[in-house]
Structures are given as C-alpha cells and as structure tokens.
C-alpha cells in the first residue's frame, strides 16, 4: 500500500503510548499499512490551571481531534474512551479495542501511607469530580484538592505540593510502565471508575468502510459490549464532566453485570445500583440501570448539580 494513513492523537506521553498500542496491533495484523502519527492539542491540554468541571461540559480532550477527522486532516483518531463525550460528533463512529487495561483507580501516596493508614484530613489530589465525590462519601474528613496535568506532572506534584496522595487511573501508570508507583488499588466499592476507563477507542468516519473493515479484527465482543453498556448508562443520565457519574461493566459468560453510580459533588447524596443483562443487548442494560437510578434519586441529584453550576457561572460571568 502506498498511502500513508494519518492517525490523530493528543501529544502527551501517555496519549502517544496508547496510540502506539493501536499502531502495533494494527501493523501486526496488517504489516503493509503505513501509519503516520499526527499530534493535536486540545482544549483540555491548553488550560491546565482550571478544574475540568469549570472549563466546559463535553469533549474537552476530543473536540479539535474530531474536527481534524471530519475535515480530512487525519484518517483515524485514538482516544482513551473515558475522554469521549456520551454523544460523538455527527458522522463519526468509534470502535473499542479488545485490550482493555485495568479500569481501576489507584492511590499513589507518599512513603509509609496506604488506603488503610491515610491520616485524618489527609490531603488527596485529583482532577475528577467523580473521584472527589466517592472518596468523600467513603471518608468525609479527607481534604480533596484539585490537581491537573498529565500523569507524569501529577506524580511530580505529589511531593512538590505536599500532598498525602493522588488518585489516578491504573491504566495510565500500567501503560507507561510505572506500576511501581501504585500504593493501593482502590476497590470499586469505594470508587467506581469512569465510564470506559482503561479502554482505547479508534474513532473514524461513518462512511469510511475501509477503516471499519481494517479495525474490525482488533475488536472483541465482550470488551465492546461492556463499554457500550457503560456509555449508554452515561448517555441516559446526560452526564458530563460536571456530574460525578461512574460505571463498570464486566462480562460473565453470556451476561453482563453493570454497576453504576451518580452523586452530588461532595458525595451526599450518592445513588448506586447493579443490574444484569444479556451480552447481545448492552445498550439496553445501560439505559435500564440509569432509569432505575433516576427513579431512586438521580433526578434530584442532576437538578441540584446543574442548578449549582448555573449559579456559579452567573457569579463568575455576570
């Protein structure tokens, strides 16, 4: 093949490592496909001194990449699925790779500390409202402080800013070969992960049948079904980065078990649930669990969160 295919990605070390995972899998299956990696700076990469929830609602790390995909500057794009909004831009489709890394959140703590030995009012850094809400639900005494930046930047800030610990995704540390930095894996009973955490997606145009055929062998039904269930749960709740929402689906034979959570920003109230569904109907499962949580209090949580957000915007932008 003479054409070089352009694959778009963010420019961080982790994003490039994740893109290399995709390239390696593709070239192993199709050695004659030449690939050129194109780095694109997104809104989320440009603004590093403001909490994510205050920048905007959706697509902070994908908007510019999707624009490049739609106007033909790139042929495909690689994303961490957790960065994708619940609704993709019109005309685009994402395929989920089979190799989902550990979806857990992990604690990286200063020497001598673990989850069990965090002192009263321990200072924990995280950029995620989802993590903040669940950690405060578990330990209301914790002092949760915002911390932005790429994974390596946040690791440096652990010591530089006098934190007791930071909470990040296991997948990023594992893909970078930094597993020795993990102090504890946080169990899902304490902190459910972000929707799609640990999964990689290849985004492409709907009308690009050749690309869909090229990547089809790299997907697997169980991984795809689990992520679809989580994303349909998120979509039904109309969740963005301003609302603490989490979900984790696992495949067990011909069934999927989906756990989901929605919370107020400070962890109370918090509503969670679990449902089983058929492997071939993951989207229905996500919707069903979301409907259950809406009936059990999620509607009030969403109303409260968005009312608070509107008030904050009116104060900051009168």
Word description of this protein:
It is globular and about 60 Å long. A hairpin with a 6-residue loop joins strand 12 and strand 13. Strands 2-1-3-10-4 form a five-stranded mixed β-sheet, with helices on both faces. It has helices spanning 13-29, 43-46, 52-55, 63-70, 129-138, 151-160, 170-175, 209-215, 221-236, 282-316, and strands at residues 5-9, 35-39, 76-80, 92-96, 105-109, 123-125, 143-145, 165-169, 184-186, 200-205, 245-252, 255-263, 270-278. Helix 9 (221-236) packs across helix 10 (282-316). It is built from ten helices and 13 strands. The termini are far apart. The chain folds into three domains: 1-97 and 199-219, D-Maltodextrin-Binding Protein, domain 2 (3-Layer(aba) Sandwich), CATH 3.40.190.10; 105-186, Periplasmic binding protein-like II (D-Maltodextrin-Binding Protein, domain 2, 3-Layer(aba) Sandwich), CATH 3.40.190; 221-318, Double Stranded RNA Binding Domain (2-Layer Sandwich). By secondary structure, it is α/β, with parallel strands linked by helices.
